[in-house]
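Task 17 of the worksheet. Students: predict the tertiary structure of the chain below and write it out as structure tokens. Keep your answer in the requested format; marks are given for formatting as well as content.
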Amino acid sequence: MLKIENLTLTTREKLLEEVNAEFELGSAYGLVAPNGSGKTTLLRVLAGLTKAEAGRIYLEEDNEVLDLVSSRKKIFYYETSDWLDRHLSAWDYLQFVNEKWADGKVDIEEIIKYWDLSDFVKLPIRKYSLGMKQKTVLAMYAVSNTNYWLMDEPMNGLDEANQKRFTGFMEESKKRGTCIIFSSHQNDSLHSISDKIYYISNKKLSDTAREKQEDYD
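Model answer:
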């Protein structure tokens, strides 16, 4: 279980104040908030890329408490396809992630087939469309074989067929015990397979829906 205790986030202004939440294995969680309210910053903190002003984030497994540094290989986060080096290929990234996170134990070819990457997997990323880049990023999550996935707007750039493919991917990953935490828009189609939706409002994290949808558009 990934736990947040009394977390406070501040960048140029305070985004979250004394937030608490728990994320269990085999479950999916959505983060919904207006732009600039702290969704991406929270994911960065959970990934260990950004420090919180106050509070604590840790993993609890078999009654043992693990900090984020010692748990790094249990968590995978790749914020956006904009991070991809245009001179490398999907194949380069999948090999790297498989080696560094999964210790080479994942069948890359099987994942390439699932995400239909074969036609371009060894081409330089500068030749990819947005959808091809996004499928590469999602394939990286599968290759990581980690317990916790942190995803920022994971369906960005996907057409309808690949959105359905991704929904199936989420469902199967949950069954295998993966914990998935993703940011999304209000009434995102992924909410139907989510175990809990957290709403960021007034610097708090709540699993109670707001009445006014326009607050999250």
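Marker's comment: The chain is about 25% helix and 25% strand. Strands lie at 2-10, 14-23, 28-32, 54-61, 64-67, 75-77, 148-152, 179-184, 196-201, 204-206.
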